[in-house]
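for the writeup, i need someone to sanity check this before i put it in the appendix. the sequnce is what the collaborator sent (i think, or maybe the updated version? ugh). structure was predicted straight from it, no edits. if anything looks off just tell me and ill rerun, i have time this weekend
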Amino acid sequence: MADDPENCCQTLAIDPAIRADALARLRSIRGHVDGVLRMLERDDVYCVDALKQIKAVQGALAKTSDVVLRGHLKHHVVTAHERGDDDAIVAELMDVLKYR
């Protein structure tokens, strides 16, 4: 298990409180994206107004990502040594950080 980054973490689920927080954030973001879509469907939308709303969505997604990453660090990375999957967790974390 410790040598296989593909399988090390399949049993490590997102903490229920973090999942609930992320879901609530994503539902809010979905509503915000719908609002941006409606805005862009209009002929009179000002480019800067649309850009501000898109940036707000990006910020909300970044915060959601931070919540999930913080939970992963707190609940899984700090306990990796106890489970004996240090190397796999580090490999997985390095892979995740490529996308941040």
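The chain has one domain: 16-97. The radius of gyration is 18 Å.
thx in advance!!
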